[in-house]
Amino acid sequence: MKPTLVLVGRPNVGKSTLFNRLTRTRDALVADMPGLTRDRHYGIGRGGSRSYLVVDTGGFEPSAKEGIMVEMARQAEAAIAEGDALVFVVDGRTGLTPHDKQIADTLRRAGRPVYLAVNKGEGVNRDTFSAEFHELGFGQPYVISAAHGEGVRGLLDLILERFPEDAETDGDANTGPRVAIVGRPNVGKSTLINALLGEDRVIAFDMPGTTRDAIEVPFERNGKAYTLIDTAGLRRRGKVFEAIEKFSVIKTLQAVEEANVVVLVLDASQDISDQDAHIAGFVLEAGRALVLAVNKWDDLDDYGRERVKADIARKLHFLNFARHHYISALQVQGITPLLKSVDMAFAAAMVKLPTPKLTRTLVEAMAKLQPPRHGIFRPKMRYAHQGGQNPPVIVIHGNALDHIPEAYRRYLERTFMDVFKLQGTPLRIEFRTARNPYADKD
Question: PANTHER family given for it (predicted)?
Fold first, then answer.
């Protein structure tokens, strides 16, 4: 088993910067603003003498009584409980605070080894810089600079030497689908994640914008591996005011690009908006397999349900390749069929299409409907083969294919999807025209 290192501390001490340093990524949002990280964020450690897991946590407020800070504290406490070693990050430039002392008391009761990292220590006298933190009672403080990497490797080696090497399988190789949960703010994305996991893994709070980062959560169900990605709600561009929210939108779009399957969550208690259509359009443009989850279905009567279905058919008609599910994430209703559709969409997105059957399907499609002429010439399609996956790409070779109209392309897409039963994923067709050997001759 890989050891798990949990980064804990008050807001804005540099935990996310250290997380990115240890994982050699930019997965955690970083800005000079307290309270940016809210959920716990997992990553694979990529420095040090052996492999390990790193968990970033939000600013820890052990005495929080209400609001979002209570949920952030719960997430931090859950991370502490599952950690093998705790890295208590403090801000050496601010100095020791009462808040640090309160966190130290909580960590002592956790019964885990605690390593005190005094951050922002670039270009200082280390002994003087760390002197006051001996008061916390965790032994020698380790002065580091997460931003510049100073002292990080030494601290890491010290932590990892207590965990013996063992025969490990490549535990970070998750062969299952990466599933991004996307939608407008406050439609129930985090609640759906928690329903799938059967635990309060991410913060679900009745306030738009609760999720800011894209949080990856590996899990297994019925022996199948998945990685769920909880994303920030996407607002209309004109309503994205905060700099942090702009970063969140970027992380969401990146999550869609890196996913295999996207679950688009709609709120049945609200009208299907132009923003829902914009999000769906982006997913389609990215070529990702898609499952539609209409949440809060239990709140509607029969008339409301029929109205929502009609609204979806009218405004999201271009998603007719995707399966629709009417669910209640809060009541955990309709979740199992939703996950089955995710499996089907993933299988369709990653399908391998044999060249003989592709070419035979192309010939049969042309026999039913020839492509229209362009001037005196009719485009001639000769054979087809697969050119990619996620989404499936079919490459068709022939002559004068530059002039095939979009309507005929859609006809071929529908034909291939029907023949190969590709439900849940879009399909791309590329036309490649053979070069005319006489084109450069007089």
Answer: GTPASE DER
